[in-house]
Amino acid sequence: MSNAPAISESALKELVHRFYAKARRDPEIGPIFNHAVGDWDAHLEKLTDFWSSVMLTTGRYKGNPTVAHLRQKTLTPAHFERWLALFRETAAEVFAPDVAAAIIARAENIGRSLQLALFYRPKRPTALDSESHTQNRSNDYANHAIET
Q: What is the pLDDT of residues 27-38, one digit of tens each?
């Protein structure tokens, strides 16, 4: 039997505090966090509320992670990968493997959602695309008419 805690408020607080201690020192993502966060005590409390809301459905978190991340103009997908690598490592240190896996899965989903919001830009149709589509439909009609 593992001594790792189940999901509890105190375990989530430990996860958040350990993770951000690593993140702040990390050469890749540390500068981003250290620039963005002015009050680390308030940030850690807010992120503990976030993970409590995500994993324990407490509803304590009041905020919008997407907007918070959109403000960080220097974020790249590589930063999210590094964030997830540190998060996975920390979750595995704090929780039993099955609990860590559940938290990591949620973090990965959240990371994917944030990356879609920050980086996904679908190709917008242009006038040429419309013209080409109309031309193709005309050709299809003409070919069908010739065949019948």
A: 999 999 999 999
